[in-house]
């Protein structure tokens, strides 16, 4: 993970998850989007073989998962708690789509820990849990069939956050200087020479392949 | 489903799926995004209790799923086949992110059937399957951990397609005339009268509530 990536400051908090397989599948989803901090509030069963079976390569996320007795413990140090919910719950919270919320999540995570909070499989977030959120976010769905699987919600949410993170980070912000004209030309000259040296490119008929590379630059 | 929605022209094609649970979870994912046509090319086990268990409310999609002996059968009538793949497979295909591809999928689906093609859980699309695709699309991930669960891929892909569909369809294109000034004013007058008639609103102190509605219009 890039050390300056805001993704390192984002934690997924799963509250009172019933099925350990969903915890494992959520970990796998997080892993694909490079969000690795998992907090579990009172999971019914964890650790569990079903969680491990569904994690498929995200075992490290499960091994490092922090099991908490209550939600407050899972939210320590966070400055923004975003509750994921399928429907508008009340009028006292801002309600955004996860795509709208993602840039704000990324911006906040550049400075301090942010929690993405997911409720139970059946009933979602309780009113007490909603009260801990500064922001509610929803994944737009067919209005009649709004019930995403828990891990699917984690997948879409972390996907949107990662998309926003990579949209907002310029090479300069990553600490990488942008390539200059000389850098680019030097790279292509080095590539061409290497292709000759290794015999991959025929010096007598090089034009089409190098032109192809040059076209790709544009 | 809205009859003019392009979503009705989009089919999910799962090729040689190993685990029936993934078929059920994919159906559930499709259902949340109002994409309901499922084609199964040589699934290892289908129908199957594991598929039904994971479908959770998407039983109708499973019941109507079309099981095909080969991929050609599943692609009949389509004018665009989009292969979902975790990595660049060759240089002969266009390769877009699913977000970039989604508007093109929606545009094509306004006129003719479009297939979203997903390969097996372990190895993805075969070369023979890639040859049937006009376009390859990828879900951007952490480069080291690019393996989304099959149903998670279906979830993100159908989510992006649905987002693009709703972004691109204006009320006019849905066959719905935009509300005129008189329509809107008439609606609020009718609402206000109904609130008086039912006793919900006090005629002597109506101002703040109606002003709240009026503020929300803007």
What's the main sheet of chain A like?
A: 7 strands, parallel
Helix content of chain A: 40-55%
> What structural class do the secondary elements of chain A suggest?
alpha/beta
Q: What order do the helices and strands of chain A follow?
A: EHEHHEHEEHEHEHHH
Low-confidence stretches of chain A: none
Using only C-alpha atoms, the radius of gyration of chain A works out to: 22 Å
Explain what the structure shows.
The structure is a homodimer of 218-residue chains. Chain A is α/β, with parallel strands linked by helices. Chain A has helices at 20-32, 49-55, 59-64, 71-74, 98-109, 127-130, 150-168, 181-197, 207-217; strands at 10-15, 37-41, 66-68, 80-84, 94-97, 114-118, 135-138. A seven-stranded parallel sheet of chain A has the order 3-2-1-6-4-7-5. In chain A, helix 1 runs parallel beside helix 7 and helix 5 crosses helix 7 (150-168). Chain A is elongated and about 75 Å long. The mean pLDDT of chain A is 88. The interface between A and B is medium-sized, with 29 and 28 residues.
């Amino acid at each position: 993970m890039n050390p300056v990536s805001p993704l390192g400051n984002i934690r997924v908090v799963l509250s009172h998850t019933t099925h350990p397989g969903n915890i494992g599948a959520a970990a796998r989803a997080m892993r694909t989007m490079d969000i690795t901090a998992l907090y579990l509030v009172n999971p019914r069963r964890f650790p569990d073989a079903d969680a491990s079976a569904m994690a498929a390569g995200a075992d490290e996320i499960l091994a490092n998962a922090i099991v908490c007795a209550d939600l407050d413990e899972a939210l320590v140090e966070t400055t923004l708690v975003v509750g994921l919910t399928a429907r508008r719950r009340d009028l006292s919270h801002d309600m955004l789509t996860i795509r709208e919320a993602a840039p704000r999540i990324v911006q906040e995570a550049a400075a301090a820990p942010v929690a993405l909070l997911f409720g139970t499989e059946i009933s979602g977030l309780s009113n007490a849990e909603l009260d801990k959120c500064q922001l509610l976010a929803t994944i737009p769905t067919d209005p009649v069939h709004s019930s995403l699987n828990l891990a699917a919600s984690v997948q879409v949410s972390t996907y949107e956050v990662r998309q926003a993170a990579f949209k907002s980070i310029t090479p300069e912000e990553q600490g990488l200087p942008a390539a200059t004209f000389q850098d680019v030309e030097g790279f292509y000259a080095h590539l061409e020479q290497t292709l000759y040296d290794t015999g991959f490119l025929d010096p007598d008929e090089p034009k089409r392949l190098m032109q192809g590379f040059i076209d790709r630059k544009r």
